[in-house]
Amino acid sequence: MYWCQRDSVFARIIEGRRVGACSFGAQWLFKKMTGRERRRLDVLHMMTVKDRLRVIAARFAFNFGAIATFALGGLGPLLGLDWDPARREMVLSVLTVCVVVWAAVAAGDLLMAPNDERFRIIPMDTVAARFWCRRLTLFTGWFALVWVIPPTGEEGFRLIAMADAVQRTLRLS
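Above: the chain's sequence. Below: its structure in token form.
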């Protein structure tokens, strides 16, 4: 049976799902373990600037920890499975794009805090904070996607054309 052989498309899909399951599972476990502390940070009273900065730094540390957990959870099976170099590079590229996009989300949440004005570092209203946080995420995701696309070959040109279509759709240029 071809579908259960090591190099079949089905086996590749299963291996890719393992990496995704380990990444998202590790992140879910981290968020589950730190959920009580995160909720406690949201209700703390911030009387001084020092208190406010401590809470903002702790929220950013929790976000960064979730990103690091996702990356390490994905690297475990990536390094543990016996893959050919091209497939390993492709999965590592997808993992890199995910980590870069989530780092942009964490940076936007740190600076603009679109969901809560108390944690906002850059002074702006909520609508503008949501707008710029989304734009920062979209631009960073587009940049990361184009950065990991191989520049040669027919598939590389096709992916670059798709990224250009996304750019035009998002009106980032």
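The mean pLDDT is 82.
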